[in-house]
Amino acid sequence: MRLGTPTVQRATGAAQGVTSLLGNTVGGLTNTVGGVVGALGRGLGETVNGATGGLGAPVGNAVSSVGTGVEQGAAGVAKGVKDAGQWKTS
């Protein structure tokens, strides 16, 4: 089969459709989970800070930072998965 034949074009189109669907689904779920973890971490950190005052601030701030870091990391992973699903190379 030559690369430009209709059969190859249909197979390539089908593969792109499937990977796009999977990439967008996994990427969306990753964004959602990352956002939930980030919000939970920030909320928990604020709760620790509010309950303990200045004494627990280092712990509360650290929990908030971890939550935000997880959220940002998940956003990066989600972007990579979505890009791969769309067959982007960079």
Structure overview:
The protein is built from 2 helices and no strands. The protein has one domain (13-84). The chain is mostly helical and 90 residues long. The model has no long low-confidence stretch (mean pLDDT 89). The radius of gyration is 21 Å and the shape is rod-shaped.
Notable characteristics:
mainly alpha
Mean pLDDT: 89
Report the sheet with the most strands, covering strand number, pairing sense and barrel closure.
none
- Whole-number total of structural domains: 1
DSSP strand tally = 0
Straight-line distance between termini: 29 Å
Radius of gyration: 21 Å
Low-confidence stretches: none
User: How helical, in percent, are the residues?
Assistant: over 70%
| Strand fraction | under 5%
Structural class: mainly alpha
Tell me, what's the shape? Answer: rod-shaped
Number of helices: 2
Order of helices and strands: HH
Oligomeric status of the shown chains? single chain
